[in-house]
Amino acid sequence: MSSVAFLDPVVLEGRHVRLEPMEAAHAPALAQAARDGELWKLWYTSVPAPEAIGAHVELMLKRREQRTFLPFVVILRETGEVVGQTTFCNVDHDNRRVEIGYTWYSQKVQRTAVNTEAKRLLLGLAFDVWKCIAVEFRTNWFNERSRAAIARLGAKQDGVLRNHMRMPDGSFRDTVVFSIIESEWPAVKRNLLHRLEHHEQGSVRS
User: What are 129-132's contacts with CB under 8 Å, separation 24+?
Assistant: First the structure.
């Protein structure tokens, strides 16, 4: 994987999950994944409803062609089931800076090893292969579970973008920005590997 060019599609595989570049054929499985927990009904998230997944995937693929996004589907290695998605987005090519966002998982795999390992794979690609200077994470101020999960990764809060964007219901979202910088990656990596080890022993949840 050391020769993967910046933002080129690649398969990332760990012990629990495999991240595959998103394709149009994944749309039905993603729609099924979103139904577990009716994720689109959570007002503070932006998960598309099942009937909108096709258009959502089309948009993700268009942005990949423009080399501004690199979307993945998250697949359980044990069963081959698609349980969510995650994406490199808001890419700064000149400075090698990216955001990991548009991430969501079926309810049944939330707070399991899935997110921890997916983030380890993505961050490893960003820092170890692409030599990024920083990786950002952003979430809604009111999404307390997401904020806590990002902090547990080892990311630090940079600040809050107030009235950052308009939500589908017309309200304005305050966006909390976190980041991991290049010099912090070795310690963050050790933290993620430690958490994965304890996941496998059944003593911790993400």
Answer: 129/1, 129/2, 129/4, 130/4, 130/6, 130/7, 130/96, 130/98, 131/96, 131/182, 132/96, 132/97, 132/98, 132/182
Q: Are 117 and 197 a contacting pair, CB within 8 Å?
A: no
Name residue, tokens 């079926």.
106
Are 164 and 43 in contact by the 8 Å Cβ rule? The answer is no
For 23-69, the pLDDT digits (tens) are 999 999 999 999 987 877 776 677 888 999 999 999 999 999 999 99
Taking CA 92 as the corner, what is the angle to CA 86 and CA 95, rounded to the nearest 5 degrees?
A: 125
Query: Is the CB of residue 98 less than 8 Å from the CB of residue 91?
Result: yes
Contact 174, 162 (CB under 8 A): yes
Residue type, 132: C
According to DSSP, residue 82 is labeled E
